[in-house]
Specification:
heterodimer, A: 390 residues, alpha/beta, 5-stranded parallel sheet, 4-stranded parallel sheet, globular, B: 355 residues, alpha+beta, 4-stranded mixed sheet, 10 helices, 30% helix
Chain lengths: 390, 355
């Protein structure tokens, strides 16, 4: 397949890997303290696991899988709000398919659908708007979620709904913002991450400049990265090169798509329709200042939260979950107390097990599960011994 | 066997309605007209013409064909009922024929149970039943008994079909999912994911246009040819819902072995690959309706491959991997990129109502 296979060439991959291996000895690293690089975006996590990139890398590079999967970071209380909206008799609730299985405190959308709620999977917000045009006697609510990548399409749909005077369409807005979320991770005292593989599709919308502060203020090298396996390997090479040469910069590996200034018409639509929330809760990370957006007053009639009442109750993450520690690189997914036992992709408890882009689900699905579970059991035994000897 | 002359009744019913209504399931004349005109009239065989409550099959005849009876059943609820490359009727025959054939059985007789939602155009029903007859003729099986129910609007979606099938397994054939051995090779009879991709395209809610046709086809001829050339096939299953990933996992678990497949060896049409790229689907989990996975001893693999390739449904056959010892119960994919990943069972459903 043209324009795809070129970015998956195994021979080029070997060349990059050799270059990375050549540079590594010039950086002071040990197996106990490897170079920790975080890929923020769930799309990157998916590529890393789908192509087996982790096993190709030397053991002195460790990839930390970040919170950039919008389905994963959706808090339980917001899922409850979705269910409450979906169960209103007048509502047709529309959603992307991967949000169907996210657990709420009582049920997921999948269960609500089975209980009789009119929930329909769509592939774009425009599909939801067309449903609203078709069913004028019903209220169509679109479950808007995603980082900046998906904000322009939602914003443009609202603008189209206004232009076309579609009054029975609204958004339940759960769009989240990238920079405040990365900043929260960087500000965490236990943070150990050395560098960042930055989300290329977010950059495609917001441009390069919003990521400058990570290199400038926090002194962490960062490379804006595409989503094919060679993109990721090349970015890792660029990061390693920065360490080897003693540089700390923001670089753009994905310039073929992510322009310096991003997507100005998209940004304009976002600015018209959305404004920053003071704070928003992310599952596994808690409440973060400015980490979400809401609909501006001008477009309030398209805001499901204002059009209908939602319970809006905060539900704490299950206590046993250690998603936060996994997200900050303090533990590996399999080291979490509940990984693979009470928390599995079939019955996810924590954020990272929910979608296939979540780090724990990726480990569970694509990792060597028997081996991981054996490691986990071994570690637990050691811990028990330590406790006993104390 | 009863001779046709005895007890054979003259077919009299003619269905004049244009749309199925509740009376067509009511047990009265309307139902009889429907059954006689649409089903008995189309399937045309002596067993059905007798209009008894059951098909009666001569045991002595079956005994000469093998030493085990194979019995299977499957229900078909595919949406949409007509799709490129087939329809629910063709699917209902091919699916059950294939379930028999992959066990080494020679498929012989099918049943046909239909649940119709009132409001279904009779022309659609006729088209589906004719398609069943055509598929049955192609596979060399007879549809010998059936049942018809009509339900209220909304209680079913257009039409659901159940077919059960009977076949006989020759005594020298012994295929089982727990027989994969380290060293065996894994064969597939062509491109993966065509059916899943065709159904997705036919639903029309993706605004993606493609020319992909379902691979829905009876595989008993192909399997005959394969077993004639290589009677010691260890494992064989058709890769329907859940795709080849699910079947390979079933074999790995049942045989306590590791199955290693190579991404670049798996035949896939570029249209299907492209669609999967756009939608984020994994073609290993996409449904097929005319693909099987066969695990054969290494020494017989080339013969088996050539036998498969000599058939219409197996032109694009390929060896896609091998069986090794450990880690047991695991399927590992060597990616085109050079890495490896585990291919697990599918969780949830990638796409609903695919067959």
């Amino acid at each position: 397949m043209k324009y795809v296979d070129e970015f998956r060439d195994p021979i080029l991959a070997q060349t990059l890997l050799e270059e990375i291996k050549k540079l590594l000895p010039t950086i002071a690293l040990t197996k106990e303290r490897p170079l920790q690089l975080m890929e923020f975006c769930g799309g990157h996590t998916h590529t890393i696991f789908r192509y087996g990139i982790e096993q190709l890398l030397p053991k002195t590079i460790e990839l930390i899988h970040g919170p950039g999967c919008p389905v994963c970071v959706l808090p339980m209380g917001r899922v409850d709000d979705c269910v409450s909206l979906a169960e209103r008799p007048e509502v047709i609730f529309t959603t992307f398919g991967d949000a169907m299985r996210v657990p709420g405190s009582k049920k997921s959308l999948l269960q609500a659908k089975a209980d009789g709620a009119d929930i329909r999977m769509v592939y774009s917000p425009l599909d939801a708007l067309n449903l609203a045009r078709k069913h004028r006697d019903r209220e169509v609510v679109f479950f808007a979620l995603g980082f900046e990548t998906t904000m322009p399409s939602t914003a443009l749909t609202v603008l189209e709904a206004e232009a076309d005077n579609v009054t029975n369409f609204s958004l339940f807005c759960n769009h989240v913002t990238t920079v405040p979320t990365i900043k929260a991770i960087l500000d965490s005292p236990s943070m150990q991450i050395d560098g960042f593989v930055a989300p290329g599709h977010v950059s495609m919308v917001v441009g390069e400049a919003p990521f400058d502060f990570i290199a400038e203020k926090y002194k962490k090298p960062i490379v804006i990265t595409g989503f094919e396996p060679l993109d990721i390997l090349q970015s890792i090479w660029l990061l390693v090169k920065q360490f080897a040469e003693g540089r700390c910069q923001m670089e753009n590996q994905y310039a073929r798509v992510a322009q310096k200034d991003g997507n100005p018409p998209g940004l304009e639509a976002i600015a018209k329709v959305f404004q920053l929330r003071d704070f928003f809760e992310l599952r596994g990370l808690g409440s973060i200042d400015n980490s979400g957006v809401r609909i501006t007053d001008q477009y309030a009639r398209f805001d499901a939260e204002r059009k209908f009442s939602v319970p809006n109750i905060q539900i704490a993450d299950p206590q046993a979950c250690q998603c936060g520690e996994v997200l900050q690189g303090m533990i590996k997914p399999w080291q979490c107390r509940v990984f693979g036992t009470t928390c599995t992709p079939e019955t996810p408890m924590g954020a990272l097990m929910v979608s296939t882009e979540g780090a724990c689900a990726a480990y569970y699905n694509f990792g060597n599960l028997p081996e991981l579970m054996a490691l986990k059991a071994e570690e637990e035994k050691t811990k028990l011994k330590e406790v006993a000897s104390n | 066997m009863t001779t046709p002359a005895q007890g054979m009744r003259k077919r009299s019913g003619i269905l004049r309605a244009e749309v199925i209504n509740m009376s067509h399931g009511g047990g009265g004349k309307a139902m009889r007209d429907l059954i006689e005109d649409v089903f008995v009239g189309t399937f045309e065989n002596q067993q059905l013409d007798l209009m008894e409550d059951q098909a009666r099959i001569d045991l002595a005849g079956l005994n000469t064909m093998g030493n085990r009876l194979a019995l299977t059943t499957d229900s078909y609820v595919v949406d949409p009922i007509f799709f490129p490359g087939g329809d629910i009727g063709k699917l209902a025959v091919c699916g059950t024929v294939n379930d028999l054939a992959v066990g080494g059985a020679v498929p012989l007789y099918l049943t046909c149970g239909v649940i119709i939602e009132e409001g279904l155009p009779v022309s659609d029903l006729r088209r589906i039943v004719e398609s069943m007859k055509k598929a049955a003729d192609q596979a060399g099986v007879k549809i010998v008994t059936g049942d018809t129910k009509v339900v209220d609007k909304g209680a079913a979606d257009k039409i659901f079909i159940n077919t059960a099938g009977v076949g006989v397994i020759p005594s020298h054939i012994n295929i089982a999912s727990n027989k994969a051995m380290p060293g065996d090779l894994i064969l597939i009879n062509g491109f993966i994911g065509d059916h899943g991709a065709a159904i997705l395209g036919a639903r029309g809610d993706l605004s993606i246009e493609n020319d992909i046709e379902s691979d829905c086809t009876p595989l008993n001829d192909l399997i005959n040819t394969l077993l004639a050339a290589c009677p010691d096939v260890h494992c064989m299953r058709d890769a329907t819902r859940g795709g080849i990933a699910s079947v390979l996992n079933e074999f790995a678990i049942a045989s306590s072995v590791c199955i290693k497949i190579k991404e670049t060896a798996i035949p896939i049409r570029s249209e299907v690959r492209g669609m999967c790229e756009i939608l984020g689907l994994d073609p290993l989990y996409l449904a097929n309706e005319g693909k099987l996975i066969a695990i054969v001893p290494q020494a017989r693999a080339e013969t088996a491959l050539q036998a498969l390739k000599s058939t219409d449904a197996g032109i694009h056959s390929a060896v896609i991997g091998y069986v090794s010892e450990s880690p047991a119960d695991t399927v590992i994919l060597q990616t085109a990129f050079g890495g490896e990943r585990i291919v697990d069972m599918l969780i949830g459903d990638q796409l609903p109502r695919i067959c």
